[in-house]
Amino acid sequence: MMPGFELLYQAAALCLTYPGDDFRARLPLLREAAPQLREFADHAAATPPGELAAHYLQVFESTEGNSLYLSHWRGISREHFQELYSSHGLELTGGELPDFLPAVLELAARTGNTDVLTEHRAELERLGSRLAGCGTPYASVVEAVHATLPAGPATG
């Protein structure tokens, strides 16, 4: 049985944050909790910490167009995202901006509200495609999230 999307979203949020000191310790749990992310978890476990951190910075901070900030993809204000957290009685901590994809994934995991992810389905698909084009294992994480979202209307 596949885990619910809440567990996948929480695990994906961890995968898409900077791989700090406690990241490696969480990989075995992440791998078991979210089978969809095993490819990424196995890669991260086999990659030296410094190399993994450098790769994260290269992919998300040095490569134009691989932004994890959803307002980058569409002109929705960050206030819109902040209002969403407030409407669920949640507050961001740690200084991250409210449109940061891992924070939005955590919001969806905690509240069950996937509306903001569904609204950004096309942007997540583009991000996943860009990451796949770069040959990074982060593509599989974004693609796993994208796969949980209902199909959007056809665009012409």
UniProtKB/TrEMBL annotation:
InterPro entries: DMSO/NO3_reduct_chaperone, NO3_reductase_chaperone_NarJ, TorD-like_sf. One of its GO terms (molecular function) is metallochaperone activity. This is Nitrate reductase molybdenum cofactor assembly chaperone. Keywords: Nitrate assimilation. One of its GO terms (biological process) is nitrate assimilation. It comes from Streptomyces viridochromogenes (strain DSM 40736 / JCM 4977 / BCRC 1201 / Tue 494).
